Write the structure tokens for this entry.
Amino acid sequence: MVQVQHRIVEVQQRRRELEPQHEVHVLAPPRLRQLNGNDYHNGVHFQYHAAPRRFPIREYKVMRIRSGVLAVALPLAAALLASACSSSPASPGQAAAVSTTKITAIGAENEYADVISQVGGKYVQASAIMSNPNTDPHTFEASPAVAREITAAKLIVQNGVGYDDWATTIENAAPSDGRKVIDVQQLLGLPDSTPNRHLWYRPTTMPAVANAIAAALGQVDPAHASYYKANATSFITSLTAWDNAIAAFKTAHPGIAVATTEPVADYMLQAVGMDNVTPWTFQADIMNGTDPSPQDVAFQKSLFTQHKVKVFLYNQQVTDSLTESYIKLAEDNGIPVVGVYETMPTPGYTYQSWMLAEVNALNKAVTAKVSTEKL
């Protein structure tokens, strides 16, 4: 109880430090983005003048998330305090019921939740926080309900690299010795400066994640450790079809030039041997919600008008007027278009079938000039 009270004081103090320092800056010109059919201007920049972030990723949106999580942390800590003061030992019957309950696990993104489910099998109840393929994960703001889910979970898998900092904030606000957290960035040994944080498109990522999930579940539930390990092995084996498709594509179509809007699938493009000729500065600007330079905009346009690329890939979950103009330009010049995703399309996909479908879409674009804008 004393520990929780101290935590409330820490959160309150941190909130007081941040709130008086808010400043609002308007970026000109604001860009109009379209998310799930709703248009809004994203030219407002909310920035705390505190220690700089590890790198500037959608800074105004990340700061909004931080503020939202702090607002969640206070009532959450109060609820934990009330629970600690009023709790009583469980009866023998209640203890027996708890022992047969499935392990609660959370994937910050649904691709990680899917792998948790496959490894955990019948002994684990896995759910995802971000799973809507029609929304932009970068603008996600955690609610009190999300905080309660994370607080109650025995296992959490999150991406890291600044992609889901809201999860870490909630975990720190309600620490638990019994909670296992797998941060994929840390698992892979990647630095905070890693420019492309869409780690699930790396063919080597999910095998490592599956093994880490099996190990963590084995610690939570030692009686079924061998079961989790066997499921992780089966999952890794099931990725063979994707690995084979990558190898076959790379052999058949080496060095094909492509254009993109964001680095969402860049890891996979590298794996299949494609050459992404879109400037990194352009990709980073689109990813971070800022306007690309006129020079980059003109260069990107020339890739289509001068037929310098064979395929155009864009983030299917986030479009704006600039992206739409490039889609039309690609189509007008006979360049097939492929949509890629930040969260796993649902229903009907597993992580394995999703990744394989993305490679198949690239193959159809190159061999038959067929667009696949939506899986």
Remarks:
- The chain has two domains: 2-238, 249-368.
- Residues 1-6, 15-99 have pLDDT under 50 and may be disordered.
